[in-house]
Amino acid sequence: MRTLMALLLVGVLIIGVSTSAFAQDEPPNLLGVRALLSNGNAVTADLDAEVGMHLYAFEGERDAQIAINMSRTDGEIDPFLILLRADGRVEAWDDDGGNDLDARLQWTLPEDGVYFALAANWRGLYQNYDDDELDGTYRIEISGASAASGDLKLDPQSLPIQKAELDSTIQGALNNDQPIFFAWLTVRDSIVVDLAAPSNQADTLMYFFDVEGQRIAVDDDGGPDGLSAFVPGLPLTEPGQYLIMVTSYGFYEVNERGTQGGPFNLVVSRGS
């Protein structure tokens, strides 16, 4: 009997260790954002030549009147805000609606759900700049978000976002109603990836956000055709969920620029 109990105990310990090790290998099931925006809680962050944009999220309720303020606190950045839906719709944007060059975005939310806010340096909207004199610090805060926004759990599987796999291709499309296509990629080990968004119709633009909501890559016309987005040799060292955003130039004011878009392929492959 004692031998049997000892064997059972050893088995339980082995299972427990194996389960623990597996859990450590699995990245957290949360889409990376710079922070969750909630009423009364301001966030301060830096923008520079390597990170010209941050991704934020909040939960909102239908007919709620929200206001998002992005104000420069140091340096020479020019704040720029874009309000998005997870399904690729653009709700609103603002450049200089606040004091001086600060951005202030006011909007009535059309329905309950998760919303994204892109906080950018206007000079880094479409490319990384190489002038450190344009670096700076900003403060972002919101009013009118859901009371539960600060406790939001961003499980990407519960959002209308496509899942991307290594060495695979996803078919997507851009149009005036949904000028943005989102996909999320799970990383468990340090890898290098190549990303491409070739299209015969759309002039694709790609943003890539890391697990902390920092835009670590951006490309407009780097593909071999001179129009499509291409990001080669991108190292990903942190486990977790990364967000890929495919769109086109002028996406935030798409309805002011006429009909544009078209189908494309999002290609995610292992780099060297």
Summarize, please.
With 272 residues, this protein is mainly beta. It is built from 1 helix and 18 strands.
Q: Distance between termini?
A: 56 Å
Instruction: Determine the mean pLDDT.
Output: 88
Order of helical and strand elements = HEEEEEEEEEEEEEEEEEE
* SS field, number of helical segments: 1
CATH architectural designation of the largest domain: Sandwich
Q: Write the CATH fold name of the largest domain.
A: Jelly Rolls
Percentage of residues in strands = 35-45%
Radius of gyration over alpha carbons?
A: 21 Å
Coarse shape = globular
Helical content class: under 10%
Number of domain modules: 2
- Biggest sheet: strand arrangement: 1-3-8-5-6
CATH secondary-structure class of the largest domain: Mainly Beta
Structural class: mainly beta
Multimerization state:
single chain
Main pleated-sheet profile = 5 strands, mixed
The parts where pLDDT drops under 50 for at least 5 residues are 1-24
Count of DSSP strands: 18
How would you characterize this protein structure?
- The protein is mainly β.
- The protein folds into two domains: 35-151, Jelly Rolls; 161-270, Jelly Rolls.
- It contains one helix and 18 strands.
- It has one helix at residues 2-25; strands at residues 35-36, 43-47, 53-60, 65-75, 79-85, 90-94, 103-108, 113-121, 136-143, 162-164, 168-174, 181-187, 191-197, 204-209, 215-219, 229-236, 240-248, 262-270.
- The strands form four sheets. A five-stranded mixed beta sheet has the order 1-3-8-5-6, with no helix packed on it. Strands 10-12-17-14-15 form a five-stranded mixed beta sheet, with no helix packed on it.
